[in-house]
Amino acid sequence: MLDKRFIRDHPDEVRRAVREKGIDLDVDELLDLDRESRKLQHELDQKQALRKSSASGPVAANEVRRDYLRNLNIEVKTLREQLAETNEKLNALLLLTPTIPWPGAPVGPDESANVVIRTVGTPPEFGFRPLDHVELLEKRGWADFARARKVAGERAYTLISDLVLLERAVHSYALDLLRGQDFTLMSVPSLVREAALTGTGMFPAHREDIYAIPADDLYLAGTA
Question: Which residues are within 8 A (CB) of 22 and not within 5 positions of it... i.e. 6 or more apart?
Answer without folding.
Answer: 109
